[in-house]
What does this fold into?
Amino acid sequence: MINFKDQFKSLASIIKEEFLIDVILKSGVEDAYFPNLNIMTINSDPRWETRFYMLLHETGHFIFDKTENDKDKFMETVKFGRELSSKSKRKYIAEVLEESLAWKYGQSFAKQRGFKINYAKYDKIAADCIMSYSVLGLRSIYGKSFKIEGIV
It folds into this structure.
């Protein structure tokens, strides 16, 4: 049986010691990485397994930000949406791409560091999150004309 609480604490220690990023575990917060503040926030409401996977995902964002090859490949084309209007298709694609890569980088980091993952559960959480980003992005572009029925 995997002890996800211990894995979470071990990963949080690595993030603090090696990346100089504080991990804040708090009820009701959004799971997020704030690079300018050197902080990752993780919602303490879900079970330890989900918390661990969300922390891996936020670690994936950190790795993404530090990986120049991926930034160079995509940034010139889509600028990762930071300079584009909120209804831009390019911004939507950039955000979904970045989120997808963060999940992949987090998974790779776990494997490199010897953390245990239930891949079926990790993939389900990642897919659910990516679908939610996709739906929000499509709604921001197409508004009420976008119908979710039949997609999810």
User: Anything to note?
Assistant: The radius of gyration is 16 Å. Helices lie at 4-19, 48-66, 68-78, 89-113, 119-142.
